Amino acid sequence: MKGTDGDIPAPEEAVAPIPPPDREGGTLRGFRYRRHYRPVVEVLEVWTDVGAWWAGEPERRFWRVRTADHGLYELADDGSGRHWWLYRIYD
After folding, report:
1. Where is each DUF6504 domain found (predicted)?
2. How many angstroms separate the Cα of 47 from the Cα of each of 1, 34, 74?
């Protein structure tokens, strides 16, 4: 799976590339997945993972968020904020 512009490889476990989320003052406000906009009502956790640095894997930031429809998602970016992936969907 490639990133949104084909240059940056997606995390292997990522569900899908997504457009950069809406942000306000560093806080995620919402994201688009499968043509639906999902407003973020709570950012539960943010962390950085260095990945397999020895294999050239880039550092990524992860965001665990709760959406207005009570969904729980993990989003990941490439560290620059230009490339984003929906990393995990919790049931």
Report:
1. 29-91
2. 23, 25, 11
Would you list the DSSP string of 14-82?
A: --EEEPPPEEETTEEEEEEETTEEEEEEEEEEEEEE--SGGGTPPPEEEEEEEETTS-EEEEEE-SSSS
Q: What are the mean pLDDT values of the chain's consecutive 10-residue runs (91 residues total)?
A: 46 78 89 94 94 84 95 90 90 73
Q: Would you kindly state where each structural domain of the chain is located, as residue ranges?
A: 16-90
Distance, CA of 80 to CA of 90 (rounded, Å): 25
